[in-house]
Request: fold
Amino acid sequence: MIHYQVSPNRRVLLHTHEYAEIALIESGKGIHTINDDTSTLKPGDIFLIRPSDCHTMGASKHGIGLTNLAFPLSHAVNLENRYLPDDLRYFRSDEKLPWSTHLDDESYVQVENLFRNLANAVPEQFELERFLMNLFALLKKPLSALPLGHAPDWLHHACVQMHQPAHLAEGIPALVRFAGRSLAHTARELRKYSGTTPTEFINRLRIEHAAQLLCTTDKSILEIALDCGFENQGHFHRRFKDRFETTPLKYRKKSHSIFF
Reply:
């Protein structure tokens, strides 16, 4: 693992690797070209780069600071095969572009701490795989499932705020309030940058939150549905089954059988 500085107005040569990479942008701005697709770089961006990905980056006048971790691909793939068999977003993805997202402030601090702990640990397979497991757990949060690309800051802010349970229960009115734009404009921009509607976005967050409550509390399923903003129980059960391919009750029983 290295902390790397790209000098102002300089560019890293186009390259591939024989290993996997995780890159966290810490400071500065620039551009990132990967597999012929170009995007801007800013602090908080994180990339999971596969060996086959061909990429380069160029720094603006202020340079770019990043942390880069390189490791054998097999370590990540083995963990994904075992613990994330149905989630193909990360190092097993066959999409043109590797997985990336922009971390909210809280997640950024958590990822920084993961890198710091790894840097201070004994260099052994256990520590690397512990780092990867903790990182995957963090990236599986709902926000990580909604990459917003070059979306404006106000939209990022509004989406982050919707992770608060009270805001999530309120739903679309809270999203519009934090966006500071009309519903029509908010919906148009959300669709543009994420490919989803406000209703789809909020329902997905609500279901993810409900799943968390099922695993970590003894609240009834009815209470959880109401806490998450679902007044119609039939609608809640349909949404939950669409997302997890099982009922809330079976999901709870399965989680308890694993952890207790």
Q: What stands out?
A: The domain at 2-140 is CATH 2.60.120.810 (Jelly Rolls).
